[in-house]
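Final report, closing paragraph on structural work. Over the funding period we assembled a curated collection of sequence-structure pairs, and we close with a single example.
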Amino acid sequence: MQQTKTVVVGNEKEDGTERVARWTEIMSEAGNVSIVPDQAPAFTGSLSTRPIGDLLAMRIASSTFRLTRDELLGADNVFVNLLLRGSLAGTAAGRNFELPVGGISLVRRSSTLDLTIADAEWFGLAVPLELFERKTKWRPHLDALVFAPHSMQAVILRAHLLALTELADPLPTRVSAQCEDTTLTLLANCIDKRTARPRLDEPKELQRHVRRFILDNLSDPDLGWSMIADEFALSRSSLYRTLGAQGDVAAMIRRLRLRAAHRQIVSTNGDRTSIRDIGLAQGFVEERTFRRAFAREFGYSPAALRSRVRAGEHPRDSDVAADLKRWFDRLSR
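Its predicted structure, as stored:
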């Protein structure tokens, strides 16, 4: 039987030094902890752990601290993190890293890390790399990957991760094994939506799958020619030949992302989703870059389009018809 265990830091009897020491020990498997001295006396934190087969589910809440890592800590794992509240930002795997509330991230335990975690609560799942690779191959572009809150991957994984907390406690061994397999399969399918790579002997068939891969991964900020080429075992020149008249891959991806963002603003009738979150959902990490690219592509800003939609000045029916045409055109290629 596998049972949840919880530790709490911050009772009234602990002074600042004791709180820092305990939290440092608790988080030692993830990295090195730093807490600003004048914040230590009021620091609080909690960690609940629950084994699920050979996976480890964790629910963590804390005041602000810094977590750093510059070397492999024991056996390698993949950390799957879901931010529930607060802020989590810095660098991971040598990249700028920010996890929005409701987003999902993947980070290797062997990767460098320098994060500030501010008044946050998050759900973490530690997946042994060996188990991860039984379902899908680890690729470098997955390290420090963030799924935006409204992306398909984040929506599905978020629901599943939170559902794990509702299972019986303690968890029977047989059920635990089933949950482990289900979780790994779902994670693999969200990362790599094909359970098996198709045979792509015909150029048109290869082109169709490359286009579909691009459309399916627009929300991934790392989507680019190298990620696509790695997925289909193509050189850069072969990839460009495959896409033919499409030309510049980066320009094509940017154009598709902008059109998807345009459709999102129009189809949601100008809801209150922030412009930044709309850009993140389409793979734009920086809001300023998204706004500028959008204005260059369409001649008006995302905010201006939203205002037109709210005022009923934008013909929504024509966009629906255009979406249908794009769908059937894509399938017929």
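Residues 194-200, 316-321, 327-333 have pLDDT under 50 and may be disordered. DSSP finds twelve helices and ten strands in the chain. We thank the funder for supporting this effort.
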